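User: Hello! I'm new to structural biology and keep hearing that structure can be predicted from sequence alone. Could you demonstrate with Amino acid/amide ABC transporter substrate-binding protein (HAAT family)? Please show me the input and the output so I can see what each looks like.

Assistant: Of course. The first part below is the input, the amino acid sequence of Amino acid/amide ABC transporter substrate-binding protein (HAAT family). The second part is the output, the predicted structure written as tokens.
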Amino acid sequence: MKTRRFTALIMMLIAVLLFTSACSSDDASGDGKKEGGSKSKEPIKIGVLASLSGALESYGKQTKQGFELGLDYATDGKMEVDGRKIQVVYEDTETKPEVAVQKATKLLEEDNVDFLVGSSSSGDTLAVLPLAEEYEKVMIVEPAVADSITGSEFNKYIFRTARNSSQDAVAGAAAIAKKGVKIATLAPDYSFGRDGVAAFKEAAEKLGADVVLEEYADPAATDFTSNLQKIIDEKPDYLFVIWAGANSPWNQIADMKIQEKGIKISTGAPDIAALSTMEPLVGMEGFTVYYNDLPKNKINDWLVSEHKKRYNGEVPDLFTPGGMSAAIAIVDALKKTKGDADADKLIKTMEGMSFETPKGKMTFRKEDHQALQSMYAIKLEKKDGVPYPVPVLIRELTPEETAPPIRN
């Protein structure tokens, strides 16, 4: 009798355990989700690499501000997608590739980020690209422009909202290159400058121009005398300048009276700080990636208005919309995957994906994940009440016009 009661008790316990196990399997998260639901409620983590100090500090800060505004805009201020909160960790690369690798490794191993974003320097970015592949995480490249990022060094985890050197080159060449025109170039001696010149030369020569001299200066240079003298001696029709950073050559170009010697200057209109040094170049025709009143769309209107509210009346600068575009791209992709940050699903979703940005519609080209986007042919003019030459629109260059060669 006792044996039968003991056996019955054991059978009841087994039944209870089986029932409990079944319930746990159906509701592993404890919140009514099916198996895997707990993961869906974990925060989405984004690691942003930027030059928050050093020569490219202003670019890093613009990207950071734009990224924060972009997340606000794309999530309606909720900072979540499909019930998953978004957390962002910023790291300063100091514009040093070895530091960029250290910071990226920390983001991937210690912070366990789902995405990487960055960085301000092409050198930093190229150093980090292999880590995105090693850790199988999608990396949005912004604002680094070296062609090799989506060319020879490309891997499938890389998507770029920034324009690349070839897009700059197509726009720059369209402004000045034609048959019989002689052009000299001046650029910094690292991947950004050399890739930019190579792309510009290819585009200019297709239009019949002759690039007669390529001058490369130390990226940290403050004295460009020897470079500019070589250019003067060559007597080109145009000097096309590619530069990034606070140590720009504009004052020295004016001091050495390059234009008075019959050499016209052309360049991409830079950020506002650099525009302030370009008074001698009023009347110059060139191109720009962005100036706050050039794009005419509701997202750019929101960006300009919100930026003024948050940053003491200041307008967004050259790389602010790029940061915003990177954030919008991430949120749009996550909305399509219903909050799933699995890299393979994201890659499948993002290849060929179009999304609206402050510069209008961008599309990630399937072959190399480069965002096709608008650029702007401009002329530098003086405007009442503005203490620097202003880029005035000649015409918008469409994403189709500025589509760069596929180089991967």
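User: So the tokens describe the shape?

Assistant: Right, they're a compact way of writing down the 3D structure. Reading them back into a model, for example: The chain has a mean pLDDT of 90.
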